[in-house]
Amino acid sequence: MASKIPISVQTILSEYISLFHERIPNTLEGLYLHGSIALNAYINGSSDIDFIAIVNSDLTEKEVKVLSNIHRELKNKYKKTGMDGCYLLWEDIGKKQTETKKCLYVNEGKVGRSNHVINPITWWILRDKGISIIGPEIKSFHFDVNESDLVDYVLNNMNTYWLNRLNTIERFKRIAFLFPNNLVEREVQWSITGILRQFYTLRERGIISKVDAGKYALNYIPESWHAIIKEAISIREGLNIRYCDSKKQRINDTIQCMKYIINYCNKMYKK
């Protein structure tokens, strides 16, 4: 496997491939990595293994159950590292979400059906920095994605998923002091670094890791939000350094920082 793939990930992938070939033979024809591994930003114990798997035909109900068991076994064995991806046919690679039917996807060891993984961000990273494990080189594929698609998708995501998440945090802020610290910190790092990666994409028309997006934002976001951004980066990297004085400050700064970013991006980039 490619040298940029961490040894711990290579171990999981080798076992996954072996189990797949053994239990659903003559079916898996392609396996490609995107996400943090492709961006050279994988954090052991924090990052997922983001993948696109190519099968040569739609899986039967029996095969889906077998596949579900494979992922459940791997999740139980490697508790800190999840596989997050989907199963496509060759003709699905690079297509727009509206042109594909719901596909099998896996997250946290559970298998379901959705086409949310088929989006401009996935194709952009796969096209530019993806890693081939099984199958033809990625450069041989056509990806139907451009800057306009990327910007439209990110703005929509910001005003749906991230806005909804912001509203949820705001609803619960009065009782946030009752939540365990690890739950609050998980929300801080997920929401702040996640929305800052969207901020970077809208400004630069590219995609980088969440940590790098946080460091980038420190050069452009008002200083009043630097503490919460630095704290989110520290949590993401598994460090014990904290920049906020209290749980209340973490929650309030997360809310206000997210509001600032959403308002700024809508003002600057919304048509």
Automatic annotation (TrEMBL):
Pfam families: AadA_C. Residues 197-259 form the Adenylyltransferase AadA C-terminal domain. InterPro entries: AadA_C (IPR025184), NT_sf (IPR043519). This is DUF4111 domain-containing protein. SUPFAM superfamilies: Nucleotidyltransferase. It comes from the Bacteria. GO terms for molecular function: transferase activity. Keywords: Transferase. The keyword Transferase applies.
